[in-house]
Amino acid sequence: MFEIHSPATFAPSSPSCLLQRVRRLSPFRRLRYYAKTCWLFIADDVKTIILPCSTFSLITSPRLELSRIPLVIFWISIHLFLCDVSNQSVSRLEDLANKPYRPIAAGRISERSARHLLVFLYIFCTLLSAALGQFWVSFTLGILALAYNTYEMSQNWMAKNILNAAAYVCFEYGGTALAGDELDRTAYTALILSFFTIITTIHCQDFRDIEGDRLSGRITLPIQFGQAASRALFSFFVIFWSILIPHVWDMTFLWRSVYFLSGLYLGVCVFRRRTVEEDKRSYKLYNFWIAAIHFAVINARR
């Protein structure tokens, strides 16, 4: 595989140099280079968006059509690609501090080329979704991406959490609608629960990125209210949802206990373990918890 060049040797501020380097590659190696660049845009979000949202969509759909599974995964993935290119096009300095392997920070693609790619993705996603009857979902995701990145609404912790939760539900709504029949009451209830679960717990991702957020001037919830208060708030809500959601879906006492204990463990980990590496591990646990809490709706589909 291709190595990730450092910004010093493959500077994103030198698009002509970048283009010359890529052009010297053989067609096959160039294709691999572009494929890996695309992958690096979305790699961090496979476990946070693609897997949980695809799982949610497939189990929440009133009548799943197996032939539509690849379409659901592709639709979610291509819209995630759009959102990630939009985000990383304006966050190079932050990524240099937190995630230097990302394509723009690593010098694999220039900011100008990323913006051209973004325009293409807006057009492609809109046309694809219009053909599939999901135009307004795609349009809404595009507006959310613009608000979050271009208009810098992510600089405020409250707007950031609202936009994150809204985008998450758009992924789930679009995927669920594509998976089968029109949404029913159970599906809408699951989407509402998902929105409030995300909006009250998504700041778990901010604990590991405090340094980069300070550099970019972003005021996240941990920066605004301090780590102790924001971690306590997260722990409260993760335990709260671990109790409420299994109750809503009328799960057995055994499964309610499993969800409660998993939420309790995650809450304690986030509250007590506060190094950057520990926060990264806690965020991985959070993503497993999100996937599990979304999976609870399957009890209503039996």
Describe what is shown at a glance.
By secondary structure, the chain is an all-alpha fold. Helices cover 72% and strands 0% of the residues. It folds into two domains: 1-49 and 66-183, no CATH class; 188-302.
- Work out the radius of gyration: 20 Å
Which stretches of 5+ consecutive residues score pLDDT under 50?
A: 1-13
Helix-strand string = HHHHHHHHHHHHHH
What is the count of structural domains?
Answer: 2
- Coarse structural class: mainly alpha
How much is the average pLDDT?
Answer: 89
Number of strand segments: 0
Distance between the termini: 44 Å
Helix fraction bin: over 70%
What's the tally of helices?
Answer: 14
Please report which band the strand proportion falls in: under 5%, 5-15%, 15-25%, 25-35%, 35-45% or over 45%.
under 5%
Shape: globular
Biggest sheet features:
none
Walk me through this protein's architecture:
The chain starts with 14 loop residues before the first helix and ends in a 7-residue tail after the last helix. The N terminus is likely disordered. It folds into two domains: 167 residues, no CATH class; 115 residues. The chain has 14 helices and no strands. With 302 residues, it is an all-alpha fold.
Give the SSE map.
Blueprint: H1 15-23, H2 27-42, H3 46-60, H4 69-88, H5 92-98, H6 111-131, H7 135-150, H8 157-179, H9 185-201, H10 210-216, H11 221-225, H12 227-248, H13 253-272, H14 276-295
Helix pairs in contact: 3-4, 3-8, 3-14, 4-6, 4-7, 4-8, 5-10, 6-7, 7-8, 8-9, 9-12, 12-13, 13-14
Subcellular location: Membrane
Transmembrane segments: 117-148, 187-207, 228-247, 253-271
Protein name: UbiA prenyltransferase
